[in-house]
Amino acid sequence: MDRSTALLIVDMQQEMANVAATGRPQANPGAEETVARIAAAFRAAGLPVVHVLHDDPRPESRFRRDLPSGRPLLCAAPQDGEAVFWKSGSSGFCGTGLDSHLRDAGVSRLVIVGGVAAFCVNSTARSAANLGFDVVVAEDALIAFDLPARNGGMLDAEVVLEVTLSALHAGFGKVVRAEDVLAQLPAGAET
């Protein structure tokens, strides 16, 4: 990987940890540590790390930048010089300037991590592919919760994640494990 590849961290905010702390079933309980590991390796390699965070306009939302629950998780906190974009919808590209920023930086390939897999990660990855970016999603660096089924009951977190990743892999990019991403970074970048 070279500087044409950026790590895009989606919605790694305190509310994700708050939801997990309630005991809600999730597919990748180690996702936070995996995101931190990938981010550290990208930084060590001198590759761009870009953040997209959710700022929901609804007053009842916990994903708002003016609330402690909207702050970045420590495992994915932006460092000096890293671009941060706030979005109010699902895709990190809608109304944020992310596309222009990436193109101006010469980025053509994105490694996407974060949460929630079936929502904002999914929307952002699809938008990136539709805009012509080469998309790689690190499956074990995604927060993934169970989901209420439209006809009642709950869909298992593992099933939701597998369906989401299968759809992304079928038409929008590659789905790989974190180890595969780390193996492609310059020697000595893995921490």
TrEMBL record:
Pfam families the record matches: Isochorismatase
Which keywords fit this entry according to its UniProt record?
A: Hydrolase
Keyword Transcription regulation listed? The answer is: no
Kindly list any coiled-coil regions of this protein.
none
Which ranges carry the Isochorismatase-like domain?
5-152
Query: Known PANTHER family for this protein?
Result: ISOCHORISMATASE HYDROLASE, PEROXYUREIDOACRYLATE/UREIDOACRYLATE AMIDOHYDROLASE-RELATED
What name has this protein been given in UniProt?
Isochorismatase family protein
Q: Which species does this protein come from?
A: Leisingera daeponensis
